[in-house]
Specification:
By secondary structure, the chain is α+β, with helices and mostly antiparallel strands. The protein contains four helices and three strands. Strands 1-2-3 form a three-stranded antiparallel β-sheet, with helices on one face. The N and C termini lie far apart (71 Å). 11% of the residues are buried.
Length: 113
């Protein structure tokens, strides 16, 4: 019984040791993520950094914010692709039509065509 308890404790400690670095590193942006943050407006950068505390990636947060905005504008369709380097999202309407939506990389605002 004591051996089983010790074995379970050792396994739990080993798992914690493996997972701890990934949790800590998730809060620290990589060099690439720092470059993405540098492109944003100060207001948007602050919003993204505030969400980083929950362990998400910069890219994941930006994608979610952009998809939420597109969904508000074009609720009937869906986003099929996003290219942050070019500032373009591809939206597919309910009838299958495809639209390319340019957006401002710094603010994630859809540009008027």
């Amino acid at each position: 019984m004591l051996v089983t308890t010790i074995r379970k404790s050792m396994i739990a400690l080993a798992m914690a040791a493996v997972l701890a670095p990934s949790v800590v590193s998730a809060a620290q942006p990589t060099a690439f993520e720092k470059a993405e943050l540098a492109q944003l407006t100060p207001e948007l950068r602050a919003q993204v950094k505030a969400r980083l505390a929950s362990g998400q990636t910069v890219r994941g947060i930006l994608e979610t914010m952009l998809l939420n905005q597109i969904s508000q504008l074009f609720a009937a369709g869906r986003v099929t692709a996003v290219d942050f380097e070019k500032g373009v999202a591809v939206w597919q309407g309910p009838n299958g039509d495809i639209r390319v939506l340019p957006f401002d990389i710094a603010t994630l605002q859809i540009r008027k065509s």
